[in-house]
């Protein structure tokens, strides 16, 4: 059944609303180690439909300092599990920072969200609900959880946003990690299965940017990839006429190559062509999820390649390094300039593109159509990896395992991480709750990213961090 999450800072009346909705039919399940808090689930029937409700607040500690982290945790739960989210505010008090922060997180999550302005116990107070529109919610509903007024209207609204078909009851294998499955075993048969909604893991379509300096083989690769399998050629509404995407459908996944006219465009002079390739790369990255950074195998990584690679890295898009024209290397058409040993070659590329250490690397020959299959497979893999979500429970267990002594960071630059949580996907973004409000030291960030990759993968995607000092 679809799941509605109720969020809000302490004392706004979440539990009262939850009890009002579910009556006595509540069950306590789940107990996240680390920050131990119960999640309370219940069921309601409304307009002939069964829906589950989760009170993300659970048992709130009496500690002001913990509220910001609590807010994050709630948003994480709601955005991870729920089909619709109701945020509750206290209609009789001014908005405070945690309200605003929670609203910001929830509104960014892309799920149906509703603002319940609570404690509107009398008609006089009702009009006051409008003041809370400043939070940015389109759906603002005054309620009195205590008296039950407005609750029916709220439910009508929320129910209209729920999916008619529930999301996949059985997550497919790629959606559950081994650790998730273990978790379920430990907890015994949980009454509420941890579902991941669509979109978090699965994206029907992956947008791909083919980038690289002139003559690395972008057009040739595009032709090889789209070739006879080309299904649709469609301009995206609102873009210029020559921005044409080509879409290839393959084993249930659709691959959209963005702005293919741009990929084919050539500059008149060498300098113009080079400048254009950078401009195009940036434009294409903007529109993409995954980028294919082409390198000419004969020439190796040049300064311009590194420049374009840098933009790819900073864009937050996933990157696959594609060494093209490998045929020319293996047939010795390079005067022995380039090593024909893939391992040696890869080392050289990695050395020149250090910041892209997370990017898978492929050797292909676009002209001969060799390795094209691999490209599709890798794109699918990295597209999935960048949307992966790690639960706060998993994250906390991970933190306990990490040996921070091994990070080569000067003492003065060290921060203590109380805990961390994944705040976003695509690219995976982690919020660290720390003792100091500092920008993370470069090598510390690298160390932590590598540790995260060792445990959770995130193949091909950069990992972003945000620091929140907890005081
Ligand atoms: P773009 O400017 O990056 O779009 O590059 P093109 O696709 O126009 O290719 C530039 C040149 O490299 C052309 O002469 C292609 O035939 C050649 N080329 C592309 N891919 C390969 C390859 O896999 N092997 C070899 N030997 N040549 C290639």
Automatic annotation (TrEMBL):
GTP 2 binds at residues 212-219, 259-263, 324-327. Residues 2-166, 206-387 form the EngA-type G domain. The keyword Nucleus does not apply. Keywords: GTP-binding, Nucleotide-binding, Repeat, Ribosome biogenesis. The keyword Nucleotide-binding applies. GO terms for biological process: ribosome biogenesis. GTP 1 binds at residues 8-15, 55-59, 118-121. GO terms for molecular function: GTP binding; ribosome binding. Associates with the 50S ribosomal subunit. Belongs to the TRAFAC class TrmE-Era-EngA-EngB-Septin-like GTPase superfamily. EngA (Der) GTPase family. GTPase that plays an essential role in the late steps of ribosome biogenesis. This is GTPase Der.
